[in-house]
Amino acid sequence: MIASTLVAFGIWNQLLSRYPAHSVAPYSLLVPVIGLITAWLVLGVRAWRVRRGASRRGGWRTRL
């Protein structure tokens, strides 16, 4: 996990050094989506489990 974080920050810093921040910043909104897809592909986590866990941490109640 530390290696992936270092790679991600390295890519982010490289992008910020080449392009203006206002053109790179919207890509930060893709982080949760990429995390969900990666968890599904690598770990086999089902999307409904992730959604339920996120809603519980956020304080919302869900009916599943």
What does this protein look like?
With 64 residues, the protein is mostly helical. The chain has one domain (2-58). Helices cover 72% and strands 0% of the residues. It has four helices and no strands. It has helices at residues 2-18, 21-24, 31-43, 47-58. The longest helix is centred in the first third of the chain and has 17 residues, at 2-18. The protein is elongated, with a radius of gyration of 15 Å. The model has no long low-confidence stretch (mean pLDDT 78).
Topology:
Elements: H1 2-18, H2 21-24, H3 31-43, H4 47-58
Summarize the structure.
The protein is an all-alpha fold. It has helices at 2-18, 21-24, 31-43, 47-58.
Sum up the structure in keywords.
single chain, 72% helix, 64 residues, mainly alpha, elongated
Radius of gyration: 15 Å
So how many helices?
Answer: 4
Number of domains: 1
Instruction: Enumerate the spans where pLDDT stays under 50 for 5 or more consecutive residues.
Output: none
What is the H-and-E element order?
A: HHHH
Major beta sheet, specifics? none
Overall structural class, as computed from helix and strand content, comes to mainly alpha
How confident is the prediction overall: mean pLDDT? 78
Number of DSSP strand runs: 0
Strand % is: under 5%
Termini separation comes to: 31 Å
How does the overall form come out from the CA principal axes? elongated
Helix content: over 70%
